[in-house]
Write a structure and sequence with these properties.
globular, 18% strand, 215 residues, MurNAc-LAA_cat, alpha/beta, hydrolase, N-acetylmuramoyl_amidase_3, Aminopeptidase, EC 3.5.1.28, 7 helices, 47% helix
């Protein structure tokens, strides 16, 4: 029954997005923020019990709130708006249904080394016409995390994550590891609403900068 409910919820989300798409009076660029994990998949769990699925959802919802308050809001959608598990393939299906121009997947990191810290941004390790734009977006996000938050940059990296692999030929796509929940400082950081807002603002500024340059 839970699986059926999840599938129905996702179909409803797709229909809602299609309705919004149909109501647009002029072409608008669309950005999908993929909120990692959810439901029974908690993702990384920090030393203070903080869960990755909750951290990234809080950040994504704050990005939406800040964007709506902007004088020139962007057209941003989330792959999930609550604690629901959406399959990786369904996340890409949503991006394709919306004909998304940019795909940003949000995650938190985990390490057996309690001293590991900082932000990583990944792009697909296979080349496409969007590789350059993906790399540009990755560096912009890194720059804003360092400038706005003082987060250590662990660099732009290349990987074969499914959400990157399935988007590589259709749009610029990045996967952001916003920090290590297993690091005491960074784990505690994400427990503070004001800090979550700061992270969301850094992400939004990176998207805005990219949009002004390329969208």
């Amino acid at each position: 029954m839970k699986k059926v409910f999840k599938n129905v919820s996702f179909v409803f989300l797709l229909l809602k997005m299609c309705f919004i798409f149909g109501q647009e009076t002029a072409p608008q660029k669309r950005i999908v923020i993929d909120v990692g994990h959810g439901g029974k998949d908690s993702g990384a769990i920090g030393i203070n019990g903080i869960k990755e699925k909750d951290v990234v959802l809080n950040i994504a919802l704050e990005v939406l709130r800040l964007n709506k308050k902007s004088k020139t809001p962007l057209n941003i959608f989330l792959t999930r708006y609550n604690d629901t598990l959406i399959s990786l393939s369904d996340r890409t299906k949503l991006a394709n249904t919306l004909d998304t121009d940019v795909f940003i997947s949000l995650h938190c990191n985990h390490s057996d080394n309690a001293n590991a810290r900082g932000i990583e941004v990944y792009v697909a390790n296979t080349k496409s016409q969007f590789s350059g734009l993906s790399t540009l977006l990755a560096y912009l996000l890194q720059a804003y995390f360092k400038k706005e938050l003082g987060f250590e940059s662990r660099g732009v990296k290349f990987a074969n994550f499914q959400v990157l692999r399935e988007n590589v030929d259709y749009r610029p796509a990045v996967l952001v590891e916003v920090g290590f929940l297993t690091n005491e400082d960074e784990g505690f950081y994400f427990l503070q609403p004001s800090k979550v807002k700061a992270v969301a603002m850094a992400i939004l500024k990176g998207i805005y900068n990219y949009s002004n340059k390329r969208l």
